[in-house]
Structures are given as structure tokens and as C-alpha cells.
Amino acid sequence: MVIGQLTLKPASLKPWHTLGFDVKAKGIVNVYSEADIFHVLSFAKQQGLSVLPLGEGSNTIFAKDFAGIVMRVCIQGRRIEQGVDGRLMVYGAAGESWHSFVRWTLAQGAYGLENLSLIPGTVGASPIQNIGAYGVEVKDVIDWVRYIDIASGEVIQLSASDCLFGYRDSIFKQQLRDQIVITEVAFRLSSVFTPNLSYAGLQGSHAADALQLSDYIVGVRKAKLPDPQTLGNVGSFFKNPVIPAEHYQVLKEKFPNLVAYPAEDGYWKLAAGWLIDQCGFKGTRKGNVGVYKHQALVLVHFGEGCVADLLSLAWDIQQQVWLRFSVRMEIEPRIYPQ
């Protein structure tokens, strides 16, 4: 399918999502501008088809073939404007590779995203999931998000305070799910590097500058997580569960080695990987899918597998963690259709 003369042709989504299952869509199209998006939306409306915006497919599970048009958002563009009090306004088009964008900001002397290095995906996907790692969430630096309403075609700029950001959550994942196409994100970054080493694993990094800290984080991530180019995965498969203090105290008494971190309002965030590991799943395999041998939080696809096996394995994990810890494990990536 190409812009200009749109025609429908069933196509495999295998190359376009990092789990690499051989599912299909009625059509796949790349869009490089907002004008392209409007053209695709108009065509889809005429054909009575749904449209699914997709970045790098690094947080997506296709449970079955998609009976619509997958629109790969490939819009490119980066720019910086001087703000006030050492602040910099940095703008990224939705199709920009996230890690490439992060490294570019650091090279421009714009700081605040270094802890989010090597997270797969695109700039446009970052607010949907409110991506976070090593003590930083992207909500901390987002100023606004620009998107197109699929039904009305209206272009809207939503301030960060209206994005309803939460832990791996946002208005784009809830109230606006499947209703919008993000085209640009604006960030408030700093011209002064102030390292955030609050995460325990970073306190020995001794980074002299932001690029060194980014390099350190890249090394840590590569050591713990498989490269989706060689082993299909979506990174963390489950959210780290957040539980009340009372529940945490009960678990801590029963499991003294429990890995947990203080969260907001007296809650505790549990290390999901530790819970899965304690249930004996690390390194296990089910058909052509399994649990990564170096990080139990990551489910992997070895190739030629089926989505049903992956979801069955995830269900097994959820059941065993519940039986042992009375903790519910929530799947982090989006499952289509659902």
C-alpha cells in the first residue's frame, strides 16, 4: 500500500513488531506527514476499515490477524528552542527512533532523557506508555503532545497536565485508546546536566557527563535484555506490581529477600522479575516461546512460534505468582485486539 493511490493488499506484520509473529493486516502503509495521515484516514473511512497507528511495534502483541489498516508512523523531525532559566524546548516528530532521539538531545547539550537510553520504540510512543527506567519517567519532562483525532480529523495539542500520566499509563492508553494518532511530542529539558542516580543500580556508575551515563545505562540494558533484532521480545512483559504497605509487610515477613521499592502514598512497588523467578519460570520454554534466561521479566519468541503459546505462558506466570504471593501481574504491552 502506498500513499497517493491506496489499494488494499494483505501483508505480514512479522517485520513490523519486535515479537515477530507471522500475523497479517488487510493493509500496511507508511505515513511521513500529517497530510499522509489525513489521506489514510479518509481512505479507511471510505472502505469502512479501522486504522491502527504503529511505531516500531516494540510494545505490541498481535493476538490474531488485524482486520484493518496498520499505519506505520514514520514522521521525522527534531528541533531545539532556547527557553528560560536554562530550560530548552525540544521537539521530536512521532516517527523518530527513541534512542536515536535521546542521543541527539545529549549531543545538543539538552539533558533529562539520558536515563531513558536504549528503550525501544519511537518518540510518538513514549507518552502512551509513559516510558520509564532507572528512576526517570518521560512524564517528568514532557511539555505537550500533539495528535490527530481519528474520527474528527481535529489536530489537538494536549498539555502534560492533561495527559493523565501514571505508572506505565496515560490518557492515550486509556480514554483515548485507538482514537488518536500522535504526531509530535515537546519536551522541557535542561542545559545543565544534573545526574539522576536515585536508582540503586546507577549509584556506582561514576558518570562524569550525560553521554557517559547514557553509555553506562546502554551497557546495563544490553547485559540484561535480549536484542529484539535477534530474539523476539517486547522488553518487560509485566508491570512491576504496586501493593499497599500492609500487604508488603506480610510478604516481607514471609519472604525476607523480597525485592521492593517505596512508591507513592505508602505503597510499595515489587520487582516483577523477582516474583517470576521465585516461581521457577526463568529460562523455561513453552513451544517456541519462553522466559529469558537472564531476566525473568522478559518473555521471548525463538521463532516460528504462535501468539497463543506466549499468552498461555503469560497466564501460567500470572496464576503461579498469584497463588504464591497473592499479587496480580498485569501485562505491560498492548494486546490487539483487546
Question: Tags for this entry?
Answer:
single chain, 338 residues, alpha+beta, Uridine Diphospho-n-acetylenolpyruvylglucosamine Reductase, domain 2, Uridine Diphospho-n-acetylenolpyruvylglucosamine Reductase, domain 1, 5-stranded antiparallel sheet, 4-stranded mixed sheet, 20 strands, cell division
Describe this structure in words.
There is one protein chain. It is built from seven helices and 20 strands. It has helices at residues 34-47, 98-107, 126-129, 210-224, 245-254, 272-278, 307-325, and strands at 11-12, 24-31, 50-54, 60-62, 66-73, 78-82, 87-93, 132-133, 136-137, 142-149, 155-159, 180-190, 232-236, 242-243, 260-262, 268-270, 285-286, 289-291, 298-301, 334-336. 23% of the residues lie in helices and 27% in strands. The two termini are 25 Å apart. A hairpin with a 4-residue loop joins strand 6 (78-82) and strand 7.
